[in-house]
User: Which sequence fits this backbone?
């Protein structure tokens, strides 16, 4: 009975947070969050990260690192989409089968899939973020990639396709995947972090320019 009350309270808080985030609206933010939440828009950032890895690691270690990152993303994505979602079956907030969907505002008719617990966006972005946190001893890059992951998560609640709880659990799944895969990578490839890296700020510049481009696009769409 106590456990049921606790879970009920958590669900209520989760719903209130979702409606608060989703309820704050601005036309430019609709365009910004929808674009920021996209996958292909961040390909330049991924290329920049791979460039830094290749520039700073021996080619054999770089290949091992790329494989470990791919395994991290695969673990995070499949653990969420294939294992947990079919067991929990929690409808997305914007899912028309969900009673609260009538209170959720959507953008461009986007409602996502049927279930949303946990968030694969959160699992994937935080999986990558935590792996890079382990990989590089650089405060600027670590802060940037974590803020990028957080804003990605915020955009998912803003769009009404994920509860904050979906995002929190997704981020935890990403953390677990990154921790396991980095541990295997560091042992098998005998990787040790350095103090200094070549061109370590390239991903920050690329990610920053991409974000600025999304903002300019959002403002222009608002003015048109």
Assistant:
């Amino acid at each position: 009975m106590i456990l049921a009350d606790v879970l009920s309270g958590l669900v209520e808080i989760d719903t209130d947070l979702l409606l608060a985030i989703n309820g704050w609206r601005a036309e430019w933010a609709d365009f910004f969050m929808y674009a920021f939440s996209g996958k292909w828009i961040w390909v330049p950032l991924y290329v920049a990260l791979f460039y830094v890895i290749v520039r700073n690691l021996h080619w054999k270690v770089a290949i091992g690192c790329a494989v470990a990152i791919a395994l991290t993303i695969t673990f995070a994505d499949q653990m969420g989409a294939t294992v947990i979602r079919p067991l929990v079956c929690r409808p997305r907030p914007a899912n028309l089968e969900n009673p609260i969907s009538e209170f959720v505002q959507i953008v461009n008719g986007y409602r996502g899939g049927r279930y949303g617990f946990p968030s694969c966006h959160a699992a994937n972005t935080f999986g990558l973020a935590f792996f890079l946190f382990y990989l590089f001893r650089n405060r600027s890059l670590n802060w940037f990639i974590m803020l990028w992951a957080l804003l990605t998560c915020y955009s998912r609640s803003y769009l009404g396709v994920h509860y904050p709880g979906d995002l929190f659990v997704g981020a935890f799944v990403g953390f677990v995947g990154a921790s396991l895969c980095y541990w295997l990578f560091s042992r098998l490839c005998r990787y040790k972090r350095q103090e200094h890296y070549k061109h370590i700020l390239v991903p920050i510049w690329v990610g920053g320019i991409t974000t600025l481009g999304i903002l300019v696009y959002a403002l222009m769409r608002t003015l048109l």
About this structure: The chain has a mean pLDDT of 94. Helices lie at 2-23, 27-36, 43-56, 59-88, 120-135, 139-158, 164-188, 202-223. Residues 59-88 form the longest helix (30 residues).
